[in-house]
Design a protein that fits this description.
heterodimer, A: about 400 residues, Rossmann fold, 4-stranded parallel sheet, B: mainly alpha, two-stranded antiparallel ribbon
């Protein structure tokens, strides 16, 4: 009985102490991403980007008077239901201040209501679904340093129509919610350019042969193919394209950057144009050099060609720094205050991907837009920057 | 365009036929089959990938090891998941073979990961153009090997003594047993052979489809559809149905839409089940009066 009283007392005292008074206690940040299964590489890349940035913040003495950052990682397995469970667990049990997301748009969309209900900021660093940030919530707890399908489609259309001067695009799109989101985006932006697609073809995951779809686009007179798909299916697409001896250019959403696209296609991948939010090839700014060095020292990555899923690393790196700045500005770890600070960040963050000034506003929760994406091309099994215009 | 579609259809169709033949072989000897036949396709491709790419062995030893490993896989399935139910005339093999397949698929995912990998083949490097249609030589090799194998299996059943014994088991197990034929061994052999045929399909398809832990699922399912359409008791029926199914699929995808492909394909299965439940060339069960 006496023990119980002591425990109870201790608990009461523990709760009574305001959070700010607990100096020295680590500030926990959550990471909810796929770290197993087919997309495990994306989770690993995000973890690396977050860790490198976190080490920098901690080396400078942490936040809020010396409190170090600590990362709590949970696996969403690419499964929306699991994603919702771990989102709650991270906030309610682990008491994380903010959470970084993973690759799957389906998971990110399912989690949106949780962030709002529990008033905890979410920083998307991969999943590109348009409605993740444009979710109709007010105040909006969802932020993103990554691509947004809407901007991505705008960029793909601009490159196709303005740079390549193609006027008869054929769309080849995977038969999923992600594909649908892009079908809408591409149609919208092609419409802005007064260009009409000559056909929209769909394919399913694991489809073996894409020649029927390609033949239909070919017969419809397509002079370019805009592709929305992930690596395994995109590989079948370029293989089938070579097979039917059709040589129109292929412009792709960034699905071809993941997985083993180059390995699956060999030299057929050459010339496929897509985009990234960041490229570690070419001249790097100071942060770029630092991140490359950290990747080498910490993970044995010898150079940019060895970074699997570079966008995950870069987005997560900048995302973490932005959250750290927001916590510092808010002077608090409370969700609503950190959220407000993210939306009104006073300091300019000279980041890896760009100078964020400011990253977010109350209307704009995507820090990156099509102006920031880099067009790249597969060449000899490597992702190289493509000089536009 | 039509040549293109027909050749692609024949290539895939002949593989459906080959895998479906596996259902036929075990069905006629034991009235059971391995519902996870698709995983044998996958296992064949994965083992071949492991030997050929992973360990860097030359092609021929890799193939020999693959076929032996898959024969063993078939026998194991029979021992673990079929034999006792076959003896007890219980339909529990239906579930137990599916369970084995799921275990095999997940084991492959653990060992191999979920990513698809490229299986290098000299025959998928450069497409050849014939009459405006392009093919990878591999796509021509697939139906050729498929049809030759079907011929070999047919010869084995009709011309060799052991093949005739197996046929006898199929006709009347009790009588065959009385004639001194070892039934358990015959069933084991059938399962081994059936897995080997699936493995051949897996290895042939690997350069075209890439290797992944889930590559066999759909093929196994469609092969089952083919076996039903052709008639589980008729090897020639199954081959005809396989080729027909592959070509139909390809033409529907090419001229209608890829969305309509599975609808038409599996619609055919329902139609056959209603009109000719014993399959196109299957033996019509005698009516007892």
């Amino acid at each position: 009985m006496r023990h119980a009283v002591i425990v109870l007392l201790a608990l009461t005292v523990g709760f009574a102490v305001p959070p700010a008074a607990q100096a020295g206690e680590a500030i926990k940040l959550g990471m909810a991403a796929a770290i197993s299964g087919g997309s495990a590489a994306s989770g690993e890349a995000i973890k690396r980007g977050l860790t490198i940035a976190m080490d920098e913040v901690n080396a400078r003495g942490g936040l809020l008077g010396g409190r170090k950052l600590e990362l709590v990682i949970r696996d969403d397995e690419g499964n929306p239901a699991k994603g919702v469970t771990i989102a709650r667990e991270l906030i309610e049990r682990e008491k994380v201040v903010a959470t970084f997301g993973g690759l799957h748009s389906t998971v990110a969309l399912a989690q949106v209501p949780v962030w709002h209900e529990l008033k905890s900021p979410y920083m998307g660093v991969w999943a590109a679904g348009t409605n993740i940030t444009r979710n109709g919530q007010n105040p909006n707890y969802v932020f993103r340093v990554s691509a947004n399908d809407d901007y991505a489609d705008k960029l793909l259309v601009r490159y196709t129509v303005d740079t390549l001067k193609k006027t008869k695009p054929g769309l080849l799109i995977e038969n999923t919610a992600w594909g649908q989101s892009n079908e809408a985006g591409l149609t919208k932006w092609l419409g802005e350019k007064k260009v009409k697609n000559v056909g929209i073809e769909k394919f399913n995951w694991n489809d073996p042969d894409m020649s029927p779809q390609l033949l239909r686009l070919k017969n419809a007179g397509a002079d370019v193919v805009i592709l929305v798909g992930n690596a395994p299916e995109a590989a079948q697409v370029v293989k089938s394209q070579a097979k039917i001896g059709w040589t129109v250019p292929m412009v792709s959403h960034w699905g071809v950057s993941g997985g083993r696209f180059a390995e699956l296609t060999g030299e057929l991948s050459d010339g496929v144009v897509f985009f990234q939010t960041y490229s570690f090839f070419g001249k790097q700014n100071e942060r770029g050099q630092h991140v490359l060095k950290a990747l080498k020292d910490k993970y044995g990555v010898k150079g940019p060609e060895e970074i699997t899923a570079p966008v995950g690393v870069a987005n997560a790196y900048d995302g973490l720094h932005l959250v750290a700045l927001a916590i510092q500005q808010a002077g608090s770890t409370e969700g609503p205050k950190v959220r407000d600070a993210l939306e009104n960040l006073k300091v300019e963050y000279r980041g890896l991907i760009k100078n964020y000034k400011p990253p977010f506003t109350s209307e704009q929760h995507d820090a990156l837009t099509d102006e920031d994406y880099v067009l790249v091309v597969w060449r000899g099994g490597k992702i190289l920057p493509l000089a536009m215009k | 365009m039509i040549v293109q579609l027909v050749v692609a259809g024949l290539a895939l169709g002949s593989m459906y036929g080959l895998v479906a033949l596996g259902y036929h072989i075990t069905w006629v000897t034991s009235r059971t089959m391995n519902f996870a036949q698709g995983t044998a396709v996958m296992a064949g491709a994965v083992v071949a990938y492991g030997c050929y790419v992973g360990l860097g062995w030359p092609l021929v030893p890799s193939l020999v090891v693959t076929l032996l490993a898959l024969a063993l896989y078939g026998v194991l399935i029979e021992r673990i998941a079929v034999y006792r139910f076959f003896r007890a005339a219980s339909p529990a093999w239906l579930l137990s073979t599916i369970a084995c397949g799921i275990i095999a698929e997940n084991a492959a995912m653990l060992a191999f990961g979920k990513d698809a990998r490229a299986f290098p083949s000299a025959l998928t490097q450069k497409p050849i153009l014939i009459g405006g249609a392009g093919f990878y030589p591999q796509e021509l090799l697939i139906p050729a090997v498929g049809l030759v194998l079907v011929g070999v299996v047919q010869l084995f059943y009709h011309r060799t003594s052991y093949g005739k014994q197996l046929k006898a088991v199929a006709w009347n197990a009790e009588a065959a047993s009385l004639m001194g034929i070892h039934i358990p061994r015959a069933v084991m052999f059938a399962y081994g052979l059936s897995a080997v045929l699936a493995a051949v399909a897996g290895v042939l398809l690997a350069p075209v489809l890439n290797v992944s832990a889930t590559m066999g699922t759909i093929i196994g399912l469609k092969a089952f559809a083919v076996a039903i359409i052709g008639g589980l008791t008729s090897a020639p029926g199954i081959i005809v149905a396989g080729l027909g199914y592959g070509v139909t699929e390809s033409l529907v995808a090419g001229y209608l839409s890829t969305g309509a492909r599975e609808i038409v394909g599996f619609g055919l299965v329902i139609l056959v089940l209603i009109v000719r439940p014993w399959g196109l060339l299957g033996a019509r069960p005698a009516r007892r009066v």
